[in-house]
Design a protein that fits this description.
- There is one protein chain.
- This protein is α+β, with helices and mostly antiparallel strands and 658 residues long.
- The protein folds into four domains: 161 residues, NPCBM/NEW2 domain (Jelly Rolls), CATH 2.60.120.1060; 79 residues, Immunoglobulins (Immunoglobulin-like); 291 residues, Aldolase class I (TIM Barrel); 83 residues, Immunoglobulin-like (Sandwich).
- It contains eleven helices and 42 strands.
- It has an eight-stranded parallel sheet.
- Strand 21 and strand 22 form a beta hairpin.
- The protein is globular.
- The chain starts with 5 loop residues before the first strand and ends with a strand.
- The chain binds beta-D-galactopyranose.
- The site of beta-D-galactopyranose has 10 residues, from loops.
């Protein structure tokens, strides 16, 4: 079906007569590893899937095959005169929904825009003067409908060069700016201000408070069965009878006293605010040990994370035995003669580990699959569910992540309708956990199958992943967030949509379970990540290296005013308000009647993002505070605007003023 004649080098556009360019430099001759793209790798003179480049039936000999969203930066070193190319959707893409927009920017200004191009549409020709331009950026966006099937060709892309040759370069390095003010020495009690528990079960709550230690805490009136350690602010004991208890808290040190309240709701619902903590997966993968878990718990306290509400210290996969593994200490029988799960040799004593975590006032999380094996090939719970639920409670765990993994093998043989099969393992584990004499929060991990947000709560889940592993698509945090926010109506206290962990600081590449290294996101992207997760009331689990927390990472993770938005008792997920081209707002109603508003810029250029009152559905005058900077910024009426860096975000809180 494609033209057999290749659009070859001999068919080059004739260079304008005035041009003295001596040389043609093909984009595909340059270092293509500099392309950042959402799927696959940039291909030299081939499409992203390795086929002949082809647009609307026309084949091309040279060019770069890439995939939206795709960005590459070039340093033209002052030597290039023109940039020429033909661009479009590659014919090999299998869906009619493929649509793209190609954009070119020079020294921070947009120079060219293809508009939306779809599969089968003729290529667009680029013939752009770039004399005097130093930094060139070639961008392919998904044209607003997601990146699926978006195979993009920069066909016949080349520079006419009269001096130095262009080269591809890493994206410009952004300044690392710390926005969160350092906590002062005076006490400050932070969120959460409400906690759920089941009557009669063990109760544990560490009052999150910043400020210089020593500090003395009070909590009055305390429901019967609970005691407070006045030096640490840790409440322990047995959860009271069904009911709501409002406890007045104070924290005092030599700089002053802070007061707050904690509402303890003894009933059926746990996780009344989004769960917060740390999970080992994206740092330690199949290298996790008891020592690393204890270190994470210690750092959660020493870094100040626990003082802003982080609480769960969670093991992910690979703590059990596998039949095969490179590390012999992780190989062994899955279970003992009675059928009890056997942790591998890196976990000599699970009770001692959870005790270490609990002593700090923190909670312990664990992980398994309902299938015969976990995703990494370790022991699963299949046909041992009741025993395992009991075991997790006996070991002292407070949270279980239940990951579908090999359960697909079981489901494949099950004649029941699909939705019943999706629910089945979670109905079972949900019930078993509720039967334990311990509060165990259940996180469903099955990547959103069967619209899990519609039934996750009904099967006993407290949160559910709405998509696959974010570690595989870190460059798509905006898209993943926007997709997650589509399920906002299903979210409420005790029932949270989970778009996966916060991956900043030192993390290992999910492709290949790499050793931790600085995360590839820019500082602005990291602020956007945290801002979006707070506005969506998503579970906040950091998954970077606790042993290598740097000042910037702590600043992103530990802004109590942002976290207060996340932990707001209404539990609302922000609503998305599309603004211009690549900008949008996210608006979240808060329990005190105020609103949190995020202004985001998904684009590659800094932009002033403006949200008008009609767009936001606001009326009147609002006292406004910049939450990242923790600064009042006066009053706003009619609109809210902020300069926002490329791929950045700003978050404000607005209180109606009369
Ligand atoms: C995946 C899951 C990840 C991680 C991993 C462990 O299925 O989505 O979050 O738990 O398994 O093997």
């Amino acid at each position: 079906m494609f033209a057999t004649v290749l659009w070859s080098a001999s068919l080059l556009f004739a260079a304008p007569a005035s041009l003295s360019a001596a040389e043609t430099v093909w984009l595909s001759e340059l270092d293509l590893t500099m392309f950042r793209q959402s799927w696959g790798e940039a291909q030299r003179d081939r499409s992203v899937t390795g086929k002949t480049l082809s647009i609307a039936g026309q084949a091309y000999e040279r060019g770069v095959g890439t995939h939206a969203r795709s960005v590459v930066w070039l340093d033209l070193v002052g030597g290039s005169e023109r940039f020429l190319a033909v661009v479009g959707v590659d014919d090999a893409t299998t869906s009619d929904s493929a649509s793209l927009a190609f954009q070119i920017a020079g020294d921070g200004r947009k120079l060219w825009d293809s508009g939306v191009l779809r599969r089968g549409q003729p290529a667009k020709t680029v013939d752009l003067e770039v004399r005097g331009v130093r930094s060139l950026m070639l961008l392919v966006t998904d044209a607003g409908d997601g990146v699926s099937y978006d195979h993009a060709n920069w066909a016949q892309a080349r520079f006419l060069v009269s001096g130095a040759r262009p080269r591809t370069v890493p994206a410009p390095v952004e300044d690392v700016v710390i926005l969160t003010p350092k906590p002062g020495p005076a006490p400050r009690i932070n969120s959460p201000r409400v906690t759920g528990c089941r009557p009669g079960n063990p109760f544990l709550f560490r009052i999150p408070a910043q400020g210089e230690r020593p500090m003395t805490f009070t909590a009055n009136p305390l429901p019967a069965g609970l005691t407070l350690d006045a030096d640490t602010g840790i409440l322990r004991g047995t959860a009271p009878a069904r009911g709501e208890y409002v406890v007045n808290l104070s924290a005092r040190n030599r700089h002053g006293t802070a007061q707050s309240t904690l509402r303890i709701v003894a009933g059926d619902t746990l996780a009344l605010t989004p769960t917060m903590g740390w999970n080992h997966w994206y740092t330690h993968y199949d290298r996790i040990t008891d020592r690393l878990m204890r270190e994470a718990a210690d750092v959660m306290v020493s870094s100040g994370m626990a003082d802003v509400g982080y609480q769960y210290v969670s093991i992910d996969d690979c703590w059990m035995n596998a039949a095969k593994h490179a590390d012999p200490l992780r190989v062994g029988p899955h279970r003992d003669a009675e059928g009890n799960l056997l942790p591998n040799k890196h976990f000599p004593d699970m009770n001692a580990l959870t005790e270490h975590i609990h002593r700090l006032g923190l909670k312990a999380g664990t992980y398994i699959s309902p299938g015969p094996r976990t995703c990494a090939g370790f022991a699963g719970s299949w046909q041992h569910e009741a025993r395992d639920a009991r075991q997790f409670a006996d070991w002292g765990f407070d949270l279980l992540k239940y990951d579908w993994c090999s359960y697909g093998e079981i489901a494949a043989k099950d004649p029941d309708p699909e939705l019943v099969k999706f629910k089945k393992p979670y109905v079972l584990m949900g019930r078993l956990l509720q039967e334990q004499p311990r509060d165990i929060v259940l996180n469903l991990c099955q990547y959103g199958m069967g619209d899990v947000w519609k039934w996750g709560a009904e099967v006993g889940g407290h949160s559910w992943r709405t998509a696959g592993d974010l570690g595989f698509e870190l460059d798509r945090i905006f898209e993943v967030a926007l997709q997650n926010a589509e399920h906002r109506d299903w979210q409420r206290p005790g029932a949270w949509n989970d778009p996966d962990y916060i991956q900043i600081g030192y993390i290992g590449n999910a492709h290949g379970m790499g050793q931790p290294r600085p995360c590839p996101l820019t500082p602005s992207e990291q602020y956007s990540f945290m801002s979006l997760w707070c506005l969506m009331a998503s579970p906040l689990f950091f998954s970077g290296d606790m042993g290598r927390l740097d000042e910037f990472t702590v600043n992103v993770l530990c802004n109590p005013e942002l976290i207060e938005v996340n932990q707001d008792p209404l539990g609302q997920c922000g609503r998305v308000v599309p603004l211009a081209d690549e900008t949008f707002a996210m608006v979240k109603d808060l329990a005190d009647g105020s609103k949190a508003v995020g202004l985001f810029n998904r684009g590659e250029f800094p932009a002033t993002v403006t949200a008008t009152w009609p767009a936001l559905g606001f009326e009147g005058r609002y006292r406004t505070r910049d939450l990242w900077r923790q600064q009042d910024v006066g009053f706003r009426q009619e609109s809210l605007a902020a300069p926002v860096a490329r791929r950045g975000g700003a978050v404000f809180r607005l209180w109606r003023a009369e």
